[in-house]
Structures are given as C-alpha cells and as structure tokens.
C-alpha cells in the first residue's frame, strides 16, 4: 500500500494541517512553511518585493499560486493567523482600489473583495498612493492599504493555490 491514499483521506478529514514536513513539494527554501486549509494551500515568500506585480509573479513561479484573495471571513481568519505567526511587518495579498478609492477588486479575477479586518485607522490611502493590500504580521495579521509600487516600501507576499486546480 502506498501512503498517498491515506494522506488524501487525512486531507479531507482534517480541516487544518500544518504542512511542515508533510507535503515536501511545497517545502520551498524561498518560502515559509506552507499551510493547507480546506482545499487551499498558502505560502509566504521569504523574498521581499517593492512591486505587487513582481510579488504576483513570484507566487506564480514558485508553487503556481497567486496572491491570496479574501473570499470568506473564515479564509481571512486563516491567512491573518498565518501572517501573524511570521510576525512579518508587511505581506502583500490580492486587491486593488486603483480604479475607485475604497473599492477593492482582485487583480487576477476582478472579483469584489469586501471582507476585511483593518488595522485601526485603516484604510487611510496614505499619501493618496495606497492602492494595494497587505497583512501586517506584526499587528495580528490585520489588513492595511499599501502602495503597489513604491521604492521605499517592500513586502513579502502571501500566496494561495487552489488544490482542486491541480487535479
Ligand atoms: Ca481565496
Ligand atoms: Ca494604509
């Protein structure tokens, strides 16, 4: 008997699995240990990016994912906790309000993102240039609007991959 059917049963039976040492294909040296929740895998880059576009490219080229998109309150809670566990200051996730201030859309799908747990006082569109979203790992993983590309501000990136896309 191979071990993989058992692993699949585990994946479907257990809602949250900390993957460290479990799915070696996602133990990337350039990323923090990934987590699997429901049908999604999440991983955070160790590399930092000034540009959201570059961060998004990194997700795609490392594991085949995309910057995490907040679809539900449950998912937000998961990625906040994950961000918090790293204590990283700035971590890009998906969402831009470049077209209309305060209306955040997924860069990848155009879907309206409307579930947030903002850092106190946010979103503030600081300097009128904050058109992207980040999680502040050092502030309980909560959400802040941040520049998409400003030389003085660098971010890690939290990537998401739908495991059902791999089947
Ligand atoms: Ca999502
Ligand atoms: Ca802000």
From TrEMBL:
User: A single Pfam family, by name?
Assistant: Lectin_C
Entry keyword Signal: yes
Q: Does the keyword Glycosyltransferase apply?
A: no
Q: Which residues cross the membrane?
A: none
| Domain C-type lectin residues, every copy | 42-150
Q: Which residues form the signal peptide?
A: 1-21
Identify the SMART domains for this entry.
CLECT
InterPro entries hit by this protein: C-type_lectin-like, C-type_lectin-like/link_sf, CTDL_fold
Name it.
Collectin-11
Query: Could you tell me which species this protein originates from?
Result: Biomphalaria pfeifferi (Bloodfluke planorb)
């Amino acid at each position: 008997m191979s071990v993989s059917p058992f692993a699949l049963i585990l994946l479907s039976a257990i809602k949250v699995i900390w993957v460290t040492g479990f799915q070696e294909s996602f133990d990337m040296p350039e990323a923090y240990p990934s987590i699997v929740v429901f049908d999604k895998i999440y991983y955070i880059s160790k590399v930092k990016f000034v540009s959201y576009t570059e961060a998004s490219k990194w997700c795609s080229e490392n594991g085949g994912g995309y910057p995490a998109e907040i679809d539900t309150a449950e998912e937000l809670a998961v990625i906040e906790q994950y961000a918090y566990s790293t204590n990283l200051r700035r971590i890009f996730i998906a969402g831009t309000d470049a077209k209309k201030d305060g209306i955040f859309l997924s860069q990848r799908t155009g879907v309206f993102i409307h579930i947030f747990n903002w850092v106190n006082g946010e979103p503030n569109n600081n300097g009128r240039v904050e058109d992207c979203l980040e999680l502040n790992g050092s502030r309980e993983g909560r959400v802040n609007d941040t520049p998409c590309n400003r030389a003085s501000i660098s971010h890690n990136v939290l990537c998401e991959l739908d495991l059902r896309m791999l089947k």
